Amino acid sequence: MANQREIADRAKTSLKTVSRVINQDPLVNPQTRARIEAIIAEIGYEPHQAARMMRSQRSNIIGFLADRVATTSSSIELVRGAQDAAWEHGKQMMLFNIERGTQSHRNADAQLAAFRAESVIYAARFHQPVTLPPASVPHILLNCFDPKSRHHSVVPDDYQLAETLTKIVMERGFRRPIFLNLPETIVAAELRAAAIVATARKFGVDMTGRIHTAVFEQRGEVRFAADEILRPLMAAPVGERPDLIICGQDVLAMNVYFVLADLGLSVGRDVGLASFDNLEPIASLLRPGLSTMQLPYYEMGRAAMLMAIEPPPGPVQVLELPGRFIERQSLGQQSPLTT
Amino acid sequence: MANQREIADRAKTSLKTVSRVINQDPLVNPQTRARIEAIIAEIGYEPHQAARMMRSQRSNIIGFLADRVATTSSSIELVRGAQDAAWEHGKQMMLFNIERGTQSHRNADAQLAAFRAESVIYAARFHQPVTLPPASVPHILLNCFDPKSRHHSVVPDDYQLAETLTKIVMERGFRRPIFLNLPETIVAAELRAAAIVATARKFGVDMTGRIHTAVFEQRGEVRFAADEILRPLMAAPVGERPDLIICGQDVLAMNVYFVLADLGLSVGRDVGLASFDNLEPIASLLRPGLSTMQLPYYEMGRAAMLMAIEPPPGPVQVLELPGRFIERQSLGQQSPLTT
DNA sequence: ATGAAAGCGCTAACAT
DNA sequence: ATGTTAGCGCTTTCAT
């Protein structure tokens, strides 16, 4: 590919004037500028990033370490949000799919160091505490946070998510909900449980004893306990058994659809169902479609990139972004199910 | 970060000797080498990629354009395979999530040009023909191919996939299968239909009239027709109705589980079900689990990266890789369902 | 086995 | 408004 020297020769001008045109320096004669721009367009010149990086001593590169993020379709929005924000600010984002602590992580770190990345975003799959190895470059934690507050972070506002959902179902008249929660090691689990308890209480509903951990992780394997939990509970008489099941994530909700079918119960008619994630294609493929709280992943990605480009001064920040309710049919169509 | 000059000064040697150590040139005195390596480890030096690129006039960068690939969890394996192969060969992979023809595509192309990428892999979501805009750098098509044979490509061997599956179900005694196919615009659809017809015929089964297009795309929206197709067919007497439903993709199969439940039929007992993709978490969350043909995405990603690093000489190649059968319970546990 | 010098393409700093 | 010079960190080339 051509270089600025060649463009300068063709335009009968100096190297520096070409550089000025390319870098949008206003101090250039409009005619000269037009001549140079025409040549650039003609030969399809692109400035050489490596040369820029060397001379200017700035890489303009932000790393993005996606810790298996892409294996869940909704959290890929984290990547999209960050990428869009990077381009809007003239930054180059270098994206890696890694697994924390493995060779893929070390390789990505080495490559980012070799390119002199100015900062790095680390994105996790679940809202959780994460301790990164010490690094020479600023790190922003995305969908996770540092327990020792050494890095800024961007997370979903899980309290707000659960509060919003609880308010909606309470207003629709559900009075005997149960909550099938994520493992307690995931921060989202306690935040949501607290929000559900507090919000339900305002409607005169006591959630004590109605919250069950239904997802377990053993040796990297995920196990759902929906079957054991629901079977006895749903055997109670219609007026006493749960009228609503709130699931900690959409894949658990999918499991619950099958468990309920086994019990001869119909989602949306015999019992309401709601969840967290809006994980496609599952959420809209289930019948009836799953009403769920969508996590604000795109906005979180954008926010993290802005923090990476210009880290806020002062104390370490934890930015919490709100999610929104996605309505499908799993809460029932018309009046509340409860009598 | 430090540079080779500083290392040379500290080691009381010349710049060039440091460079030799870093680039594994054998012509260095072992003691000098040890001294220099100790210093490198101590200060955590990483060679400056930009400087290397400039001087050597080689970027060592391969671009990877993932066209919404990450939005399906299984095809992220394409990325993993390519990334692993790149690192094994000392190449840097630059990964982008794009949508073909949009601003995201142009931005990624510009960034790759600015970094002087040596070749580019373009990965599509479905095995299909794709025409890329002309480019100055070699392109490898992944999970798609150029109808005018201008680029090498790597695709799944959809004929083999369908042949393998058909053989398995025939050997288990299924004799009245139907095939719910993908849209005819997707190449996989005709390859699989042809393989199913030819393989079933060897077992004395005529598939004429038993293949239905069940997935339609209108204005970017996907619509399944499983309900309209299955309702009349499954109403036939037990000995005449289909004993097996083969689905063109796992999400369609998921839809079929719900349609069958509506019809009062039980997967694995009343009718067998098999599919293509092995899309997690869907395939293993369905009850009973979905038996499906896994597409060879990881190997395809590796193969594409090898082609990108060293394009095969001679005519344009289309590399077809085989998939394998993943058994769960949707074909039934014991004897064939057919009597 | 080691070193000196040149230069990749660009922009910062300093003229004119 | 335009041009000249120097140098970013590295590897290539050519000496020793």
Describe the structure concisely.
Chain A is built from 12 helices and 14 strands. Chain A has 339 residues and is α/β, with parallel strands linked by helices. The relative contact order of chain A is 0.13.
Show the helix and strand layout.
Two copies of one chain form a homodimer.
Chain A (H helix, E strand, L loop, with lengths): L3 H7 L4 H8 L7 H14 L5 H8 L4 E7 L8 H13 L3 E7 L4 H12 L4 E11 L9 E7 L7 E4 L1 H14 L5 E5 L5 H16 L8 E3 L1 E4 L2 E4 L1 H9 L9 E4 L2 H13 L9 E6 L4 H4 L5 E4 L2 H13 L8 E4 L2 E3 L13
Helix pairs in contact in A: 1-2, 5-12, 7-8, 9-10
The first copy, chain A, binds a DNA duplex (16 and 16 nucleotides) through helix 2 and helix 4.
Write structural notes for this entry.
In chain A, 39% of the residues lie in helices and 22% in strands. Chain A has a 6-stranded parallel sheet, sandwiched between helices. The first copy, chain A, has 12 helices and 14 strands. Chain A is of the alpha/beta class. Chains A and B meet through α4, α5, β2, α6 and α10 of A and α4, α5, β2, α6 and α10 of B. Chain A binds a DNA duplex (16 and 16 nucleotides) through α2 and α4.
**Quick one: overall form of chain A?**
elongated
Q: Considering the protein shown, what is the CATH homologous superfamily of the largest domain in chain A?
A: Response regulator
Give me the number of helical elements of chain A.
Answer: 12
Order of helices and strands of chain A: HHHHEHEHEEEHEHEEEHEHEHEHEE
Question: What assembly state would you assign to the polypeptide chains in this entry?
Answer: homodimer
